[in-house]
Amino acid sequence: MGLNIPLLMQNKIPEGFETDDKLDVGLRPDEPEENDYEEIPIDQFGLAMLRGMGWQEGQGIGKNNKAVAPVNAVLRPKGLGLGADRSQAAQLNDSKKGSGKNDNEEALVLKKGAYCVLLKGANKDMYGIIEGLDEDNARVMVKLTLGGNMVTQSQYAIRLVDSHDYKKYSKYLNKVKADKYKEEEERKKEKDRKRERHHKSKRDKHRDEDSDHDSKHYEEDNRQPSSDSRKRKHDRLDDYADKPKISQNGNSRSEPLWIKPQIRVRIISKDYKKGRYYNTKVNVIDVLSLDNCVCQTDDGKVLEEISQSELETVIPKQENAHVLIVSGKQKGQLARIMKKDKSRYIATLQLLRDRDEVINIDFDKICEYSGNIDEEYDY
């Protein structure tokens, strides 16, 4: 295997031909002139120096022959300073490449006579026609459609539009406000649709459970005359549950009303008060209708006009806590938690009206009672 001798070593003057006192210039090449430098690009000159030092393209250098990827500088487009948004420049480049689209689609090209809309500045969202280009400074001269004023703008602060959009929106004074209004209306409609779907699912869930509640409830009261000695104000909760509820518009609602005063619930709506009280536990003070509940936070702040669909029940963490049954045939009765099975979401309750009766019930049918239990029953 032959030895690779660098080019500079190959051109070295052999020993004995020269001394420190005597130099033979005839052994050396002629001095380069200015024309020689002009014929050879500077990058080729640098590559020649590297090759003279033993460098070969594609091979690593150093002890480990490790190839290092060069850092290629990304040139910033004209008119864009540090921190500028390059997305506008990319959009402009894409519009320039759009000349090869279908014949039905109009190509968006930055040129004199093109239609555009201003994205920034005092004339934001106004339409105009490009009257001139300053390519050195990356600016355009635009004649506004409304008023006819001539303004200069960075070419990255405009958006090219086709003739269809220009004819449709160029003389639209409040297009942005109108679009925002339409979006807000669409959000309200979507919110109403979600609420209606939620109400429908609630009605389907509780329809079978509450259909025979009234008759069975009074039959149990007649079969248990001995429990009258323990009952105090509990009938008040039953009467409240049996009353037909009227919504704010005056029409009766078929959706079962499980929310009642003196229970602790959680706000699950991200829309109420812009989500300020999302996932917050509150105490129900009064229930005016399905769509108007009055609650109070732990720090004493009163919240009004809360819909039942924006609330969910709360299960006490501690054992022996008191709950109110909000659904099922025992709806309206107070009970004490004896055991909780979190894996099956079932609680074992002792009814306070008849302490000999113990039932198993789903977590969804009970809610933490926040009232004074001593006022309801004597112990």
Account of the 3D structure:
It is a single chain. With 379 residues, the chain is of the alpha+beta class. The strands form 3 sheets. Strands 4-3-2-1-5 form a 5-stranded antiparallel β-sheet. It has a 5-stranded antiparallel β-sheet with strand order 9-8-7-6-10, with no helix packed on it. The N and C termini lie far apart (106 Å). A hairpin with an 8-residue loop joins β1 (115-118) and β2 (127-134). The protein has 9 helices and 15 strands. It has helices at 7-10, 34-39, 42-52, 87-96, 163-169, 175-210, 213-223, 234-242, 373-376; strands spanning 115-118, 127-134, 139-144, 150-154, 158-161, 264-267, 281-289, 292-296, 302-306, 311-313, 322-325, 334-341, 346-351, 358-362, 366-368. The longest helix is centred in the middle third of the chain and has 36 residues, at 175-210. Among the domains are: 87-99 and 107-169, Roll (SH3 type barrels); 188-376, no CATH class.
